[in-house]
Fold this protein.
Amino acid sequence: MAVPNFVEKRIFVVNPGSTSLKGKDVYVTLQRRGIDYIINGYRENALPEKTNIPKEYFQDGVRDFITEARKNGDPDVWGLKTVQGGPERMGCYWLDDRTINEMREYSDLAPLHNPLFLKTMDTMKKVAGKRMRMAGNFETFYARGMPQCAKETGLPKKVEEKTGIRRYGFHGNSHFYVAERAAQLRGEEPESTSVITVHLGGSSSVASRRRGDVLYSSMGATPESTGIIMAARAGIYSGEMKYMMRSLGITESKARKILIGKSGLVGISGKDHGEDLRKLYADSDEGDDRARLALDTFQLGIAREIGAQIAGMGNGQEVSLCFTGGMSRSQRFLSEIQGKLEYFDIDLENDLPDEGVIGKSLSQPIKVFRIPTNEELVVAESIANLNLNGNHWLDRLYLEPIGK
């Protein structure tokens, strides 16, 4: 039987967030080269994003997406953005019993994400059938190649090996897409581009890549341990939680809810709507000092991380500083981060485009971009690569949609 030169795979990607849900049909075209297939095109169709979903209705949203997707028949593979699978699952894997067990094993290192994703998989199977083909792209893949010194937590080697605790880095699908897209916008190969990607959303992180090699990610062993406050998370997690339990006389579950559900912008501002930048700015403009403090604390953490990672690039490196995520759509927010990066003398444009160059340093080789992310495309292309080639990682992202 002849082996086809071209293959198209339909992959429906489910991308759960803490309070949002995205779904996208991605058709990936692959061309045979030798014994492998390479990606040479894609087309995509996104369903309307569901936002601010109450926890008790989240799985209803998943059911709606899967039901809608099946109106066009079942895809070749159902895809899922996945987060923490430990050291053995850093990349794209079939969501079989072994992988699911790894996710359960490491749920304490992703307490907001893994339990939610496991429930999401159960919901998908109830709608589409238990025999559905499902794969996930664990977002720790992006930082897997960091230098060993960037992965270390300071734990003894035996403890690290037994527990799997190390610096993983998260938001890998987003950081990878934005870094690849930045190189394309510059007209350069990714291997020749130095880029710092800043993911700003309900959770935030900063990562750096120099000439194709990831140097550092601000996130540690968990998506909660970043050192940067987030929408409702404190950016601290371990020893602080134990101390809170003893000092306040509360359970581990209650302490965890405070640290990763009622802290960050919400905690400092004292407002349940602290996750919403627009409302937080409105409070600040009306003279609410706690709202202003929340914004300043968040921006300072981001600026501090950006500065440290620019310094790690080395002398003479031309750097693309790229902002992505929902909060990057706020020109005021980006301008205030710029103000906390005064050393780098960054000048932003007055009218920022949705995608492209939005500013530059007047004294150093830094160009500033805003780039909307596309995590679903990274997941889909990773799954197509796994399905046809058996590879767990993409070396390059294909960015030319069919028809453009």
